[in-house]
């Protein structure tokens, strides 16, 4: 099939970007969205043009690198699907598709469709760890975990840190991401020693990075490819309030 | 041999709870939810009082008088009323200042999408923010109309019932009042549910109750208030 693409091109952080139109013929419905861009990039490279820069790594929906806003939706129209797992069979011959980078103040565009998500790394560094003794691995049953806690931790640990939640939010808020990380570790016995510092530090870092506040629109949870629930934000707020009151 | 296994971090500056809350985006929302709930509590009482117009002029005016003498002799005349006014003023100011600061933070330097399609979630942010502005203007108009009687053309001091009927005998009185109440209804529909999440009591199971409960409370408050202008318009109250 043939597709018309409108793609954001921007030479660098300090440059102004613009939408550029491309036509791609010979798109197979079995291709993934990124493979379709590979085909276009091969053509651009052969023609001596600058290929379109975009982030990707695993291409199997687990690493969180791919990050395209497709027709205004982070990770495109398929629910619970990363861009790399979006296949061209969801499009029809002759479709026009608009591709943009994540749009958020805290995620500046590095080049074309690549944004700088190191603000997420800062949030992780400020609390996304546990203290564990070194030495041989402990027995698997040494620390029992209640089933409900294990489920909550697992559900939130599914976050791949892609940033679609921020891109989808009208306020550019990172609450769903931060909530997923805090709930994951605070639910587990291994996360208890740093429980209070974790939530306070991660929220402080999130605020300092320039993300907006949360108005609970729920767009984040709709866009999230890993189904992190909106309720995690309520849990984050609870953890934050409890820790704040004890900080006094 | 390395003596340190981790880099030294600057000691955390600890702040008092209110200052720390005021600094953070979550803390500002907590302030908004608590002040919002205070205002809702007031609105429920206010609405229940308003419904007394349907019991006639005498009952309504004596209720208004009772509000002024409530708590005497422990409180001075109008003492209770002034306590409520100060509490509400603090709540309204804290609510609005937080809302304005969070809104500016969210929209400042926000990069625009080029698809021409608005971002999702605009419905909530739009109704909350524009509804808030409408409510703010309404609160000012409402005080000038029925408390200070500045803009109420046929007002008499000491006759709240007559002043209320005078307001809803004008078309603009009805339009302003009903428009503001619709804005209030939408504000509370999201606000009550949001406050539960902000205060951290929302869970998957409880939210199945909180969502419809928020709609119900918003509806009851809106309908309860709208009943008064409708009553005057239809001649039930005159
Ligand atoms: C007077 C002008 C007002 C302004 C400018 C205003 C503005 C706002 C804004 C922008 C929000 C944030 C929406 C969000 O983050 O989800 C909000 C939330 C809220 N408002 Fe108001 N509002 C006003 C009056 C009121 C009144 C009169 C009430 C109650 C009777 C009220 C109750 C609430 C509640 C309960 C919330 C939810 C707090 C939360 O998100 O946790 N507001 N308001
Ligand atoms: S919460 Fe979801 S959308 Fe946000 S970073 Fe994690 S996986 Fe991506
Ligand atoms: S490339 Fe790894 S999740 Fe898409």
From TrEMBL, chain A:
A GO biological process held by the record: respiratory electron transport chain
- Superkingdom of the source species: Bacteria
Q: Matching PROSITE patterns, A to Z?
A: 2FE2S_FER_1 (PS00197), 2FE2S_FER_2 (PS51085), 4FE4S_FER_1 (PS00198), 4FE4S_FER_2 (PS51379)
A Pfam family found in this protein is Fer4_8
Work out whether the entry's keyword set contains Iron-sulfur: yes
The UniProt record lists the 4Fe-4S ferredoxin-type domain at 150-180
One Gene Ontology molecular-function label? metal ion binding
Tell me which UniProt keywords the record has, alphabetically: Iron, Iron-sulfur, Metal-binding
Instruction: Write down the Gene3D superfamilies for this protein, in alphabetical order.
Output: 3.10.20.30, Alpha-helical ferredoxin (1.10.1060.10)
- Residue ranges of domain 2Fe-2S ferredoxin-type in the record: 9-103
Q: Which cofactor does it need?
A: [2Fe-2S] cluster; [3Fe-4S] cluster
Q: Which family does it belong to?
A: Belongs to the succinate dehydrogenase/fumarate reductase iron-sulfur protein family.
Protein name per the record: Succinate dehydrogenase / fumarate reductase iron-sulfur subunit
UniProtKB/TrEMBL annotation, chain B:
The record's keywords, sorted A to Z, are:
Heme, Iron, Membrane, Metal-binding, Transmembrane, Transmembrane helix
Q: Name the predominant localization.
A: membrane
Does Cell inner membrane appear among the keywords? no
Q: Where in the cell is it found?
A: Membrane
A GO molecular function annotation here is: metal ion binding
Q: Which GO terms describe its cellular component?
A: membrane
Question: Would I find Transport among this entry's keywords?
Answer: no
* Transmembrane portions of the chain: 30-49, 80-102, 123-144, 171-188, 209-232
**NCBIfam families registered for this protein in UniProt:** sdhC_b558_fam (TIGR02046)
Name recorded for this polypeptide:
Succinate dehydrogenase subunit C
Q: Which organism is it from?
A: Stackebrandtia albiflava
């Amino acid at each position: 099939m043939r597709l018309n693409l409108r793609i954001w091109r921007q030479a660098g952080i300090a440059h102004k970007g613009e939408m550029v139109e491309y036509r791609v013929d010979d798109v197979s419905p079995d291709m993934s969205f990124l493979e379709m861009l590979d085909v276009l990039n091969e053509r651009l490279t052969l023609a001596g043009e600058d290929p379109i820069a975009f982030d990707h790594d695993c291409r199997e929906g687990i690493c969180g690198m791919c990050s395209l806003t497709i027709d205004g939706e982070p990770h495109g129209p398929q629910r619970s699907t990363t861009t790399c797992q979006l296949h061209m069979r969801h499009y029809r011959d002759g479709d026009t598709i608009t591709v943009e980078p994540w749009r958020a103040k805290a995620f500046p565009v590095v080049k074309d469709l690549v944004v700088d998500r190191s603000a997420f790394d800062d949030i992780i560094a400020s609390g996304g760890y546990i203290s564990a003794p070194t030495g041989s691995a402990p027995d698997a049953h040494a620390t029992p975990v209640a089933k409900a806690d294990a489920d909550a931790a697992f559900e939130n640990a599914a976050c791949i840190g892609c940033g679609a939640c921020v891109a989808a939010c009208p306020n550019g808020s990172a609450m769903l991401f931060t909530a997923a990380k805090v709930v994951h570790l605070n639910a587990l016995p291994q996360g208890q020693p740093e429980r209070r510092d974790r939530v306070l530090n991660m929220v402080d870092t999130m605020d300092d990075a320039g993300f907006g506040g949360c108005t609970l629109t729920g767009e984040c949870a709709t866009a999230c490819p890993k189904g992190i629930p909106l309720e995690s934000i309520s849990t984050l707020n609870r953890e934050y309030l409890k820790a704040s009151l004890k900080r006094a | 041999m390395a003596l340190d296994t981790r880099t030294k971090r600057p000691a955390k500056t600890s702040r008092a709870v209110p200052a720390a809350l005021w600094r953070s985006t979550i803390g500002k929302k907590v302030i908004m939810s608590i002040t919002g709930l205070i205002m809702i509590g007031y609105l429920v009482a206010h609405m229940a009082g308003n419904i007394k117009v349907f019991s006639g002029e005498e009952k309504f005016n004596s209720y208004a008088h009772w509000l002024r003498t409530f708590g005497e002799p422990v409180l001075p005349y109008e003492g209770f009323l002034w306590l409520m006014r100060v509490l509400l003023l603090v709540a309204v100011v804290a609510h609005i200042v937080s809302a304005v600061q969070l809104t500016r933070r969210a929209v400042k330097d926000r990069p625009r999408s080029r698809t021409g399609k608005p971002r999702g979630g605009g419905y909530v942010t739009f109704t909350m923010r524009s509804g808030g502005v409408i409510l703010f203007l309404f609160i000012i108009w409402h005080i000038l109309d029925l408390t200070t009687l500045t803009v109420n053309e046929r007002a008499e001091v000491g006759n709240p019932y007559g002043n209320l009927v005078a307001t809803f005998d004008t078309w603009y009185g009805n339009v302003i009042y009903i428009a503001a109440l619709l804005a209030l209804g939408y504000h509370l529909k999201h606000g009550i549910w949001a406050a539960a999440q902000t205060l951290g009591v929302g869970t998957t199971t409880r939210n199945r109750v909180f969502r419809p409960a928020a709609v119900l409370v918003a509806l009851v408050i809106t309908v309860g208030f709208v009943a008064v202008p409708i009553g005057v318009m239809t001649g039930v109250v005159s």
